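Methods: example folding runs. The two proteins below were folded one after another, and each record is reproduced exactly as written to the output file, sequence line first and structure-token line second.
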Amino acid sequence: MKIRKAVIAAAGYGTRFLPATKNQPKEMLPIIDKPIIQYLVEEAVDSGIKDIILVTRRGQSSLENHFDSNFELEHMLEVNHKEELLERVREVSRMANFIYVRQHRHLPYGNGTPLVSVKDLIGSDENFVYMFGDDLVLSEIPCTKQLIDYSNKKKGAVTVAVQEVARSEVSRYGIYKLAKGSRDRVLSAVEKPDPDSAPSRLAQFGRFILNHKIIDILNEMHEKKKLGKDNELWLIDAIIAYAKKNPVYAARIKGEWMTTGDPLRYMKTQVRYALARPDMGEEFASFLKSLKL
């Protein structure tokens, strides 16, 4: 079955960016001239996704408004004959079918919780894409397409996107252990392990091909209050529980993985995207060189 849906988690509070995120979602912070969330939506659409399910929380109307039409702005651009800008604004609301789900306050904290919120929107036999709202990938082939293609080669199996990170960084991510002799079959994993006890340096980042059975496991963990590290509902715990009886694969993604989860990494991402822009990359690179750091 062709994958048509992507679930994007955008229900966090962005506390590391306060006060900038006091009244706007972290996912609406710009990378040059587009908000973070738009890059994720574009990646999904460029990978063949038609339906985008955004899991939000109270106070995130700016995110929803961004993917809606803006009559006043469009009218102003039209009467001032700014056709190129008008088209750029209009295409944002036309990219996909947008569905918004509010994450309920009674649910536990954790990166698995958005999936419990959408359990009734995913078919029982349907694979879908799950994306963290703060991970971006610069790549020739969209990261999501790479992951879908890899899952298809594995007969539609649950597949997680991974890249190797420095050992000093493993405590920031979910780290996977592969089956002996295999380059991609997932055996187990640990969420944010100590570097000295990490099973590998293969870190998951925010791209997954999942199915409803993963959601069922997360929902059961929630209902039975079987939460994971720091009393949170972790996706990785559900994936490993699923992997005990079903194949799960780790796909090494070709591209540059960047996270916008904290101010320093957000600024690094800004720099990388600016350097990659044909309309400003060369001039921006010259500026950086002129700083003589």
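Second run, written to the same file directly after the first:
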Amino acid sequence: MSGNSITRCKPLLGTFVEISLEGNVSEKALIAESSKAFSAIEKIDLAMSFHRPESEISQLNNSAFLQAHTLSEEMYFVLTQALYLSKISEGDFDISVAGRLVAKGQLPQKEQLVDLSANWQDIEITDRRIRFHKPLLIDLGGIAKGFAVDRAIESIDSEIKATVNAGGDLRMTDWRDNLINVQSPANPAAVIELPMLASAVATSACYNLDEGRSVIYPKDSAEAQQSAKSYSVFAQNCLLADALTKIAFLNTSSASDVLQHFGAHARVIGSVHTVREQ
């Protein structure tokens, strides 16, 4: 059978998710594989959306300060990864900034009171059970999107070449010698080609922020200065790539060490289209 290829796109995860598949199977089989991948993404979206009142993360935000909760397998994995990233970055990555983002009007208002002094160290996970030691809110945001991309890739038959792109969180099965297009920070209508340096990549830049939104430093809630630069991080999976873009974007003293710890590679595109390694 000769090879076939398909590309499908759906609105999910607050963005558009594009899945491209290629393999020596029928078009019908490729469509079935893409449907599996979309289902995997939908499952993560339903569980980890800050905006959905029925999601697992909303249930944690509602009452994990009052009582311990048993985590689903997927939530346990993502939260333990998030807390490890917080530890290794000394708090430069922190999912508990959600309460401060709500206070700034960047996330939807929640009914419960929040201690704005809380941070990642007030989250305890033991034997797949979680408890908040202070009233706080967590938002998985981009790393949930990255994890959904990873789960989509993992759901596809290993004999099929696959690329999943969720609004710039991108992962390929056959990534070597491939190029990606990254928006120019000076002119988002223009693109710059970068070589794939690992199987997954994510990009953070001011042009990715909706009007009125900003990136804040978790340690003191200060807003990062607007900059005509974009930060693309290449890593072994999309969850990690997305999280590390936040650390790279903040450009704190720990950024280079954290990237090196994970074997990740950052590329910074400047306002005059210069590309450098961070």
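Comment on the second run: The chain has a mean pLDDT of 89.
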